[in-house]
Amino acid sequence: MTWMITGGAGYIGAHVMRALTGAGERVVVLDDLSSGAARRLDPGVPVVRGSALDGELLARSLAEHQVTGVVHLAARKQVAESMARPSRYYADNLGGLGTLLEAVTGAGVERFVFSSSAAVYGTPDVELITEDTPCAPVNPYGETKLAGEWLVRAAGRAHGMSTTCLRYFNVAGCAAPELADTGVFNVIPMVFDRLTRGEAPRIFGDDHPTPDGTCVRDYVHVADLADAHLAAVRRLSGKPAGDLTLNIGRGEGVSVRELLTLIAEVSGDDRAPLVEPRRAGDAPRAVACARRAAEELGWTARRDAREMVGSAWRGWLAHRSPQPAEQY
Ligand SMILES: O=c1ccn([C@@H]2O[C@H](COP(=O)(O)OP(=O)(O)O[C@H]3O[C@H](CO)[C@@H](O)[C@H](O)[C@H]3O)[C@@H](O)[C@H]2O)c(=O)[nH]1
């Protein structure tokens, strides 16, 4: 089998590429390097430089590399940007996926793994989010992920393709400094960025209905997430498997205050945080029930929050972004 990884030069895609090649899978990367970084690529892995919106290139590359399965990660992923530019998100995330699925089914590819997100759930008021928790996204990014899942399942049913949708919770850390997340769009890099500038980290609300008043999230190490993709690929490589949708998280909540304590320990910078008003659209708590992934894939996350923060800090020191391209 040969797996095409779209977005393989991105933060998550490069970790997936390493997990698959490290386990002996044959891989080809498709990436237009618009937000991915060439330094994350592996010289031993062929790269098609182009976009998932380019149907002709896709058809040619799938045939040339005899691709038998696709892991689709290439997408826009900033919530705030999706609210400012919804049509761009719909066009790129769903347009790209539609074009890719046309090419993939036309080429007879029988296995497809889709990068989805906990953003499909919106802000449910539950202790643990299961895959049966109703989906009610609260921003265009989450909407494109939910509609993307529908598209993937429909194509699977129509063309006899086995599909797996992985709903990632809060992804953090890195397996090696060169693979680090260099964008400043999530809490850990946002706090690192503040500390590096000599500013206090911010807490968006300490009056949430949670034990310490700050938001609780399910942080999952990107290397564990990559292992989940490997497990999904292995499962699909066996007998035809229909469609499957899985939460990918640890099933454990970490509050913003707990995270800041870990960051202070790792960075050696323990300045007191500033408490700011709540951020619009933030759920007080978003923690996965991770049981179905354990049952279906035999996968559970192994790395804890300290390992995520420590590896993220080392990656930040090595490759921090001078200035993100656009801030919202
Ligand atoms: O300086 C900061 C930055 C963030 N937060 C809080 O930290 C938590 C995590 O925020 P963030 O890292 O922005 O993640 P989420 O808002 O939980 O969303 C992330 O996780 C979702 C999946 O659960 C993905 O869909 C999104 O793409 C991804 O941004 C939230 O409670 C924020 O209010 C702070 O208190 N201070």
Task: Describe the protein's architecture and organization.
The protein is α/β, with parallel strands linked by helices and 328 residues long. It folds into 2 domains: 2-172 and 220-248, Rossmann fold (3-Layer(aba) Sandwich), CATH 3.40.50; 177-217 and 251-319, UDP-galactose 4-epimerase, domain 1 (Alpha-Beta Complex). It is built from 10 helices and 14 strands. The protein has helices at 11-22, 55-64, 79-84, 86-106, 140-159, 187-196, 222-237, 256-267, 291-297, 305-319, and strands at residues 2-6, 26-31, 47-49, 69-72, 111-117, 162-168, 170-172, 202-204, 216-217, 219-221, 243-248, 254-255, 274-276, 285-286. The strands form 4 sheets. The chain has a 7-stranded parallel sheet, with helices on both faces. Strands 12-9-14 form a 3-stranded mixed sheet. A two-stranded parallel sheet has the order 7-10. Helix 4 packs parallel to helix 5. The radius of gyration is 19 Å and the shape is globular. The termini are far apart. The model is unreliable at 323-328 (pLDDT under 50). It binds uridine-5'-diphosphate-glucose (UPG).
SSE layout and pairings?
Elements: E1 2-6, H1 11-22, E2 26-31, E3 47-49, H2 55-64, E4 69-72, H3 79-84, H4 86-106, E5 111-117, H5 140-159, E6 162-168, E7 170-172, H6 187-196, E8 202-204, E9 216-217, E10 219-221, H7 222-237, E11 243-248, E12 254-255, H8 256-267, E13 274-276, E14 285-286, H9 291-297, H10 305-319
Parallel strand pairs: 1-2, 1-4, 2-3, 4-5, 5-6, 6-11, 7-10, 8-13, 9-14
Antiparallel strand pairs: 9-12
The structure holds uridine-5'-diphosphate-glucose.
Uridine-5'-diphosphate-glucose is lined by residues 77, 79, 117-119, 169-170, 186-187, 190-191, 202-204, 215, 217, 256, 279, 282, 286.
